[in-house]
Amino acid sequence: MSTLVISEPVGRAWAHIMESYSPATIEFAGTLIVQLIFFWVPCVIYMSLDALFPRFSERHKIQPAPKQPTRSEILDCFSVVLKNQVISTALHGLMIYISTLAGKGAFRVDASIPTMHEIIRDLFISLLLREALFYYSHRVLHHPRLYPKIHKIHHRFTAPVALAAQYAHPIEQIVANILPITIPPQLLNSHILTFWIFMAYELIETTTVHSGYDFFLNAAKMHDLHHEKFLIYFGAIGVLDWFHGTDGSKMAAKRKAKGSAAVGKGVSEDRNGSVVKGDKSD
Ligand SMILES: [Zn+2]
Ligand SMILES: [Zn+2]
């Protein structure tokens, strides 16, 4: 199927939307729709597997049944995630209001549709920038002063489920979850359609890596291990973990050499949830 066959109907539909609504309304409503579909649908699919296909679910769960969260923990997770999404949607509305007053929107919302070349280029650069923003903000959140007040909440789920992707302190939700996804396309002056594609991908990625399942060539393995062991795999792609020596193989070798459960910069927790300071030597 040629690009033209896809882009013509998309172009017509997009032109119709642009004629019918203001750029502010399109940015606000479109972003909310992307969040609702690409976060909640994967969550429902992943989290219903256990009830619908228990044997299949058990075969593919990374961590064993006794470590999985209880029903009341999942209900608490649901209310925290809902609160976070209300806060981030309200903040997005406020940002759009301010940028409308300033006469310049955060994203490019116009009648044109981006070319395939522009979309791929922006997605690739955004992916790398997001990795850097997420990795370093995540490492900062493991600082002994910040961890107990902020990031400890996200680490409540040592065996995560998809919904736990946004189970976080509101500061973490903004600094580590929202800004690393929204800043890169804004820096690139990306088209709003490119931003929505990027956001949809990142939401599927975060629900998948928190799902607790070994699907998509065990894509969740690294972040699942971060939830279980705390001081390894701070990033999403793995490039910066390799660069900084926080990938699993190097950390396992250090742990073996030092005979310690908490190796690496920052803090982790012991089995009772008490904060344990990591080794500062790396
Ligand atoms: Zn996580
Ligand atoms: Zn962490």
From TrEMBL:
<feature type="region of interest" description="Disordered">
    <location>
        <begin position="258"/>
        <end position="282"/>
    </location>
</feature>
<feature type="transmembrane region" description="Helical">
    <location>
        <begin position="28"/>
        <end position="49"/>
    </location>
</feature>
<dbReference type="InterPro" id="IPR006694">
    <property type="entry name" value="Fatty_acid_hydroxylase"/>
</dbReference>
<dbReference type="GO" id="GO:0005506">
    <property type="term" value="F:iron ion binding"/>
</dbReference>
<feature type="domain" description="Fatty acid hydroxylase">
    <location>
        <begin position="125"/>
        <end position="246"/>
    </location>
</feature>
<dbReference type="GO" id="GO:0016491">
    <property type="term" value="F:oxidoreductase activity"/>
</dbReference>
<keyword id="KW-0812">Transmembrane</keyword>
<feature type="compositionally biased region" description="Basic and acidic residues">
    <location>
        <begin position="267"/>
        <end position="282"/>
    </location>
</feature>
<dbReference type="InterPro" id="IPR050307">
    <property type="entry name" value="Sterol_Desaturase_Related"/>
</dbReference>
<dbReference type="GO" id="GO:0008610">
    <property type="term" value="P:lipid biosynthetic process"/>
</dbReference>
<protein>
    <recommendedName>
        <fullName>Fatty acid hydroxylase domain-containing protein</fullName>
    </recommendedName>
</protein>
<keyword id="KW-0472">Membrane</keyword>
<dbReference type="GO" id="GO:0016020">
    <property type="term" value="C:membrane"/>
</dbReference>
<keyword id="KW-1133">Transmembrane helix</keyword>
<dbReference type="Pfam" id="PF04116">
    <property type="entry name" value="FA_hydroxylase"/>
</dbReference>
